[in-house]
Design a protein that fits this description.
By secondary structure, the protein is α/β, with parallel strands linked by helices. Helix content is 52%, strand content 11%. It contains 13 helices and seven strands. It has a seven-stranded parallel beta sheet, with helices on both faces. Helix 10 (239-254) packs across helix 11. The longest helix has 32 residues, at 258-289.
Length: 328
């Protein structure tokens, strides 16, 4: 069996390029496990990427993101497009704990050879969630997927970095999720490109629609005005309209080079995010393994050395960086 034999780098590269789901699954497992072969694969396949359209789907836990993606898939497939789904939301039915109805809705997609669904966790990856997810999306891109959905919870620095991969960001809200409204008002959540208010039958749905509109009106100079769509994933209501709005945002980006500009900015941000995560991991290990650096921290804790001087000493010792913080 191909799944049981040892995958060589050459066989994996050929398999991913050919869209073999077993090769893609194996490659993503290598990414999750920080296997050195994963970096070699991404390095070799990277020139073949840049064709897939990435849609980030974010929002609080329990608002129905995975159900919404599952309901959108038939509309995407009806256009003859192949799809990849990467779920990094631990509360998502793509990951675990799917209700029976969710399993039934997802069953057809798992059997569709043009749909690849994968749930991911951090699993101690050296560069964190952002790096693992970025590599998984690149692998699905190299495998020829036309559209890649990235599902994540809309809170925390890691999740913001993950959504930075997306060409279009879809924010899913649910009536009664007041924390989401407060987060939007405070600017904690990046203003999305498209908004879905799911569970539209809830009496509070139209109230939330009005509130979100008022928040968006605070930024009248924005070139793209994010549309808001009332949806009901369980019954498939307004999903065609939602997919049209995502397509309209893509058309907007493809005008005047905006898509290329956004991708260049996103990739630069990802490089810095992954570099920062790796540097932090390396720094923590270095301090933990070095008695002299541990003494520097102890001095700060005893208030014998100020924090900025400690930073200067640690950076100088670990990275040979003289940041000038303690000069003079």
């Amino acid at each position: 069996m191909a799944g049981r034999r040892n995958w060589t780098r050459e066989r994996l590269v050929e398999g991913v390029r050919g869209g073999d789901p077993r090769a893609v699954a194996r490659a993503i497992s290598l990414v999750e496990n920080s296997d050195p072969l994963a970096a070699e694969l991404v390095r070799e396949l990277y020139p073949s990427t840049g064709r897939a359209y990435a849609v980030g789907v974010t929002g609080p836990p329990g608002v129905g993101k995975s159900s919404l993606i599952a309901a959108l898939l038939p509309h995407v497939r009806a256009q003859g497009l192949s799809v990849g789904v990467v779920s990094v939301d631990p509360s998502s039915p793509f990951s675990q704990g799917a209700l029976l109805g969710d399993r039934i809705r997802l069953a057809d997609h798992f059997l569709d050879p043009e749909v690849f669904i994968r749930s991911m966790g951090t699993r101690g990856h050296l560069g964190g969630l952002a790096e693992a997810t970025l590599q998984a999306v690149l692998l699905l891109d190299a495998a020829g997927k036309d559209v890649v959905f990235v599902e994540t919870v809309g809170t925390g620095q890691s999740e913001v970095e993950v959504i930075g991969i997306a060409d279009t960001v879809l924010l899913v809200l649910m009536p009664g999720s007041d924390d989401s409204i407060q987060a939007l008002k405070a600017g904690i959540m990046e203003i999305p490109d498209v908004i879905a208010v799911n569970k539209m039958d809830n009496p509070a749905a139209k109230t939330m629609l009005t509130e979100v509109r008022s928040i968006l009106a605070l930024d009248p100079d924005r070139a793209w005005r994010p549309p808001i769509v009332l949806t009901e994933a369980a019954r498939g209501q307004n999903l065609e309209q939602l997919w049209k709005e995502i397509g309209a945002h893509r058309t907007f980006l493809e005008q005047d080079g905006r898509l290329e500009e956004r991708r260049r900015r996103n990739l630069a941000q990802e490089v810095f995010a992954v570099a920062s995560a790796r540097a932090k991991t390396h720094l923590e290990r270095a301090v933990s393994d070095d008695a002299e650096l541990r003494r520097v921290l102890d001095s700060v804790q005893r208030r014998e050395l100020d924090p900025l001087s400690a930073v200067h000493e640690i950076l100088d010792k670990v990275f040979h960086i003289d940041d000038g913080a303690a000069s003079g």
